[in-house]
Amino acid sequence: MSRPIHASIDPGALRHNLDVARRHAGEARIWSVVKANAYGHGLLRAARALADLADGYALIELEGAISLREAGLRQPILLLEGFYSADELTQFAEHRLTAVLHTLEQAQMLAAARLPAPLPVYLKLNTGMNRLGFNQNEFRTALKILDASTQVASITLMTHFADADCDQNGPGIAGQMARLDHLREECHVQQYPLSLANSAALLRYPESRGDWVRPGIMLYGSSPFPELRNANELDLKPVMTLRSELISVRDLEAGDRIGYGGIFAAPAPMKVGVVACGYADGYPRHAPTGTPILVGGQRTRTLGRVSMDKICVDLTGIHGAGIGTPVVLWGEGMPADEVATAAGTVSYELFCALAARVPVVEI
Ligand SMILES: *Cc1c(COP(=O)(O)O)cnc(C)c1O
């Protein structure tokens, strides 16, 4: 038998979650965000599961976009950082890809190209994130360049929110929405379609729907809101479940320490288990003692330091646990959001970090 760890992916849950996004999106169309190998779930697997439901796919990687076309998917595909050099433009045209433009350099490269077909473009506006996007003057210049160009098929405006996921006392999206409205008015581009909302904005701010929404994390069944750790409450279902088994069980005496650094010492005699899963599988090394985990369907906690291939767990009160008892690291019955919070990160990072050595099975 092989090492018992695997990640199971539930395409039905993915489809269900896109339906939930659809309910929130109203009339808006939906870019299913599948960047970073569909947040670790497998690009082609996820894209195929959504093939008859998705209005379009959005991602970062050109090779990934081309592989979607080669798999026969015909929906629009949005490249969220556009192209990085002019030599990619032919592939954009050939594969009918939509490019986000966020610099004047990109606008100039496109205007100077001689493509077999003009490209649909998204112009990214900086409304306060201060990461990618045009400020007002650059935006005016970009519009001038692109209006005069024969290489542009259509223009959509987009922006990205920095605080859509913060709680009610945080800044929210009002400031960025106001800046967006100001920019659109100043530059007389109110007629252009809009794409604004990520998962958090889609779920919380109906005014941010625009014409195309861009949910990512909610499709994979996680909550974008730090104060809401059970995505069930948003009617979302986990898509990835990381499973393994106990491969060893032992009894500790009071004072016995566990694992590297011995950072956990048994306060009294106790039974502990060893799970075949460690940071080389993508489990976060910084998950502290107490991180929740399911053993034999019962909730318990991790103990001591996560090692490369193993984690120890508390078997106190877990009846009948022994070698071969199933363990859920995250997914069904153990929200990835809870594990992520315990480890000081977000479920996005847990999913994306799933290691190549973990076999993935579709259920
Ligand atoms: C990743 C990304 C999204 C999706 O964000 P989620 O928080 O996963 O919903 C949307 N828009 C852009 C520009 C992105 O890069």
Compact summary:
With 363 residues, the protein is an alpha/beta fold.
Describe this structure in words.
The chain contains 11 helices and 18 strands. By secondary structure, the protein is an alpha/beta fold. Strands 8-7-6-5-4-3-2-9 form an 8-stranded parallel β-sheet. A 6-stranded antiparallel beta barrel has the order 10-13-16-15-14-17. Strands 11-12 form a two-stranded antiparallel sheet. The longest helix has 15 residues, at 11-25. Helices cover 26% and strands 23% of the residues. Helix 6 (104-112) runs parallel beside helix 7.
Q: What's the story with the biggest beta sheet?
A: 8 strands, parallel
Cross-sheet strand order for the largest sheet:
8-7-6-5-4-3-2-9
> Mean pLDDT score, rounded?
97
Shape: elongated
Poorly predicted regions = none
Terminal residue distance: 20 Å
- List all distinct small molecules, including ions and cofactors, that are bound in this structure: pyridoxal-5'-phosphate
Q: Structural class, from secondary structure content? A: alpha/beta
The counted number of beta strands is 18
Q: What level of helicity do the residues show?
A: 25-40%
* Rg over C-alpha atoms, rounded to the nearest angstrom: 23 Å
Helical element count?
11
**Helix-strand sequence:** EHEHHEHEHEHEHEHEHEEEEEEEEEHHE
Strand content: 15-25%
Core attributes:
single chain; 363 residues; alpha/beta; 8-stranded parallel sheet; 6-stranded antiparallel beta barrel; 11 helices; 18 strands; 23% strand; elongated; binds pyridoxal-5'-phosphate
